[in-house]
Amino acid sequence: MRQLEKGLYLLEGEEMPCGPGTIDVRRKALLSTFGKAEREWAAVLIIGCSQEVGTWVAVDWPTLGRKAMEKEYSIGKLFVGIRGLIKMGFVRRVRPGNNIRNHPAFSPVPKFVLHLMKLQGITPKN
Question: In terms of domain of life, where is this protein from (predicted)?
Fold first, then answer.
């Protein structure tokens, strides 16, 4: 996994059905998409980081924490949300690079994107 910029890692070998800019992350667009508000907040942060750089990325824990604080989200609820997305199979925990000291990062998977596309009526790219 190659670092794109601090805290963001390029997804390699994973074909996503659409780009991050296609997904609507306005608060009302994600209501009830993952069953709990904490999961929706975590999803918004991951998608938002990907939208900022124009490609799907894995986001490390410190970066998610900073983004959560900027939006006045609770770090505890963010942790619960990330765990929930992992349990649902929408996000994967990865450790970028070969250094054990690297912070874990959280990577969206195609199932996550397909779920959002279906709910938002978006047709997959060919």
Answer: Bacteria
